[in-house]
Write a structure and sequence with these properties.
This protein has 144 residues and is α+β, with helices and mostly antiparallel strands. The chain contains three helices and seven strands. Strands 1-2-3-4-5-7-6 form a seven-stranded mixed beta sheet, sandwiched between helices. Bound molecules: coenzyme A (COA).
Amino acid sequence: MTSITIRPAEVEEWSAIAALLTSYDLPLDGAQKHIADFMVAVGENGDIEGVAAIERYQQIGLLRSVAVASQGNGVGATLVNHLIATARKQGLRQIVLLTTTAADYFPRFGFRRIERQDAPAAVHASAEFQGACPASATVMMLDL
Ligand SMILES: CC(C)(COP(=O)(O)OP(=O)(O)OC[C@H]1O[C@@H](n2cnc3c(N)ncnc32)[C@H](O)[C@@H]1OP(=O)(O)O)[C@@H](O)C(=O)NCCC(=O)NCCS
């Protein structure tokens, strides 16, 4: 595995990001509007190896759209750890996520399952809560 760099996504990278998310059937709703919240993991050759975003709702972060080009190389963990550290520095209080595919992945970062109605009110305004993610999605939260 070549070394990767984590940096903010550029607007022109939207189509590559969307293609990666779509390849895993992850919802695009509201994502392009939040392109400024996306980070990309870039390999030495400049290719996008992974993406993830944290949308801010007051002092709550909504972690979404975590996807990697090649699974099992630590890129997901590098991205998630980077976003958690940044959220801490920015003074966010909690990070919430919805997932239908990776509920067993996130506990290693400290996320715990919660009931949908117990998610902080601020994130209920997000496109993900408003319908992009199915009502059956697992909701998870990390206290920072
Ligand atoms: C989930 C995902 C981001 C993890 O990134 P990654 O770079 O593959 O994972 P890492 O290399 O950091 O970690 C690998 C470990 O995570 C586990 N893992 C990977 N995906 C997992 C998943 N969907 N559910 C549970 N565990 C998972 C692997 O089994 C491996 O476990 P080990 O450490 O015990 O061997 C990546 O697999 C992915 O893009 N999945 C498809 C999109 C998706 O479901 N995203 C989550 C949306 S909320």
